[in-house]
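Narrative of activities, Objective 1.

The group set out to show that a structural description can be obtained from nothing but a protein's sequence at a throughput compatible with the screening campaign. Below is one input-output pair from the validation batch, recorded exactly as produced.
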Amino acid sequence: MSLDGRVALVTGGLSGIGRAIAAKLASNGAHVVVLDAGEVSRDDGISGEELVAALPTKSLFHQGDVADPDAVGAAVERTVSAFGSLDVLVNNAGVTVFKSIDALEVDDFDFVLRTNVRGAFVCAQVAVARMRTQSRRGVIVNVASNFAFVGATDAVAYCTSKGAVVSMTQALAVEVGKEGIRVNALCPGATATEFNRAHRARAEIDAEWQEMTPLRVLGTGAHLATPDQIADAALFLASDSSAFMTGASLVVDGGWNAR
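Output recorded for this entry:
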């Protein structure tokens, strides 16, 4: 699944799934621009500049807020200036607030939707405008979640936001498909990242996630995906191996949705 000569913008690419996706795309030949609101990775404290310097292709780090059209426009302009095109957008940036409905504040809800939904929309809007000018039109991969389709404890805001991302994916795919732009959603299940570490450390949450995940990793019994396993699916959606897929939701959740 070669991406030689392609240029990818990965949002939220400093940590977790986004970082694994950035590395996977670069290892398959793409120039990668990592767009992140932070300066250092949640995983290990590495800086954005250090992260992209370690990638196997020439790549860039750009700090910015995905929900800010000016910041996203600047990131895309820098991407095109450096590499000549924008072929792949991975809308991975995301936040959550794990609280019960009684404790969830309206500001919490707005905080989650601002990044997860507005941010994905802003990035897609800017990317589509650019992709329309290119002979090779491009691909958008929206990282949603299996929680777009199922409920989970203390996750009302997150589930709502990811359901919206799936619906946005379908609508956008219909709108731009005749122009050759593909838009798909990647829906990971429970994954071992810093993003959810504190939440899944709660015994009752871990028990719930184990109960809901039929698949176990042979030899370990693990019920969580690794970021690299999710990145494999992102590579598939970004590459020509999925050339006739659009408007789809690829669920990678160890069977959770089969329940």
